[in-house]
Each structure stands twice: as C-alpha cells, then as structure tokens.
Design brief:
- 2 copies of one chain form a homodimer.
- Chain A is of the alpha/beta class and 183 residues long.
- Chain A has one domain: Nucleotidyltransferase, domain 5 (2-Layer Sandwich).
- At the A-B interface, α1 and α2 of A face α1 and α2 of B.
C-alpha cells in the first residue's frame, strides 16, 4: 500500500510518502514540507496548504492518507493552526475518495520506536533506519510525516481485521460504530 | 456590500447572507444551516461542509465572508470541530479571492445588541428586528450567522478607515502589522 503521511501545521506541514506492507521492507517515495508565510492571513495560508497537499496527492497518488490526530491540550494558538491545517489535509483526501486515518502522536511513536514516549531524535533515527536513508529527514515535521505513514502501514492489518469483524457483526446484529480513527 | 456570515460547526454550520451599508436598513438575502451527520468520519463531514458553503457562495455571490473567530477555551471536542469547519469556510472564500474577516463572539454581540455579553435570545431578537423578519431565525446558529454578517457590515467603515491609515503610515515608515481579523 502507498500512504501519504501528513504532520499538519500552518507554518510547516510535514508530508511523506511510504510504500510497503507490514512485515516487509518499506520504501520512501518522497518527503517534504509545505510551508506558508506567518505574515499571511490564515485564510490565505489554508489555500497554500491545500495547494501543497494537492500537489503531493497528484504526484504520488497514495491509496491512503494518515494524518496526525490533533489534541487541544497544547498551546492555544498553535493548536488552532494545527487543527485548521489538518482539516484541509483531511478534506483534500476525502474529496478524492481516499480513506483518511488519524493516528495519535503516541500511537505513531509506539509503532515506530516501540515507546509511546520516544523523543523527536529517536523517531527520526528509527525512520532513517526503517527507510534506509542516509540521514534523518529534516525538519522534524518531515520525519514525523514519514513515521505517520509507516505507522499506518503497520497498523493496517489489525485495522483491516477489526473492520472485517465489525462488518461480520453488522450482518447479524444492529449497527455498530467503529472506533474513531478506523474506517 | 453583500456579506456571507458563517457560524462554523461540524454538526450545524450556520450561514446567512445580508446586504446593506452601515447606517442604512439591511436586507436578508438568505439564511440556513449546513448539517453533517454525527456518525460520519470527520473527513467526510468536512467534504459536506465544503459542498454546502460552495453552494451558498455560488447562489448568493457575496463580496465578503465573515467567520466567527474560534477560541479554544471551550469544550475540547467541540472546539476542534469548530476550528476544522471554520478552516473549510475560510478556505472556500479565500480560494475565490473573497476577503475573509474573523469576528469574535463578543464583537458580534456588541455590534448587534450593544452588549458583548448578550445571550442567544437577545441576539436572535435584535437580528429579527434589524432584518425585519417575522420571527427569530432558528436554530441559533442561523441567527448567529446573520449577526456575523451584520457585524461585518457595521464594522466595515471603521476597518476601512483603519486600513487607509495603516496604508498611509506604511508609505512613510516601516511595515506595520494589521490587527488580526482586519484586512
């Protein structure tokens, strides 16, 4: 499967495309950052984020988009920009009919490093090893986007089995709501 | 001037179009609510919000879009949906080159009722009088969207003078940043 990971942000929106399946070596197809100028209006910045994400979708044609789930316990100003940029990323994907998965930062860290409390350097270092890169991708937002894509590929079999179980359950009983973040 | 007011939300996104100029009677051109199903994925809901806003922009061709400025001191879950829906509204407007203005809830209440602490009923009642409606628009999100549009029309002359002053100042001195929400 080919996955676009998006680490959302208004100033720097990390994007990374990884191809592979769980249990086999992964391949990085691209990594980068969509930037918007801090002095621009929020509305203009959202248009630039949309344009950037669209270019990545056009160029790499991913089958899935994995976006970091935003929490609001962080800095108030930052979290609003992050929520708004993540909305644009989700919108771009869903408008094309691509499945969107949300993964929390600790899910991503745990998937990639084995610990939900790993720091940026550990995530960057594991992403570098897993994708056989020469050096950790910079800035950290780019490495985080790749980690999101890797997390999605590795979690997909479990999510797939869950969806099958829910679908089977649905055929015999009343409707069941999937947990958030699974599709 | 013709203004589309947007009271952003994922479950109910209030929309209202008002035409007029400060100091003269106002005219309501349309009011409604863009709804999305709570059981749908956030990404799908954002696509529905986009589609709804686009329809309102197509039908009423406003010259300005006024969106409620979202703060995050409210309920964590609610505020994320509100921030995401507001991002979609801002994106739709800016993509068309329409100026987007953000007004805080207290600015809107103060503009329409004279008090920044007015309750929903007072806002609905003043919107009804100002637009010479038979009854307050329902739900409250629809009335709030009209109040946003009215607030924008009434604040526009002051904002325009401010922008002229800043532009004049810029011609003679170093760059000045406009306060947030003015354009």
């Amino acid at each position: 499967m080919r996955v676009l990971g998006v680490d959302p942000g208004l100033t720097r929106c990390g994007v990374g495309v990884v191809e592979g399946t769980a249990g086999r070596p992964l391949r990085m197809l691209g990594v980068g950052v969509v930037r918007t100028p801090a002095e621009a209006d929020t509305a203009e910045r959202l248009v630039l984020v949309e344009r950037g994400i669209e270019e990545w979708l056009d160029e790499h044609r991913p089958e899935y988009v994995a976006v970091e789930r935003v929490f609001s316990q962080h800095n108030v100003r930052t979290v609003m920009g992050t929520a708004q940029a993540s909305a644009v990323a989700m919108l771009c994907a869903a408008r094309r009919g691509l499945p969107v998965a949300l993964h929390t930062p600790s899910e991503v860290k745990a998937a990639v490093t084995g610990s939900g409390r790993a720091d940026k350097a550990q995530v960057g270092s594991m992403v570098t090893r897993l994708l056989r890169l020469d050096a950790p991708p910079k800035p950290a937002d780019a490495a985080d986007a790749l980690a999101l894509a890797i997390c999605h590929i590795w979690r997909a079999p479990a999510t797939g089995r869950l969806q099958q179980a829910v679908a089977a359950h649905r055929r015999t009983t009343a409707p069941v709501r999937l947990p958030k973040g699974t599709r």
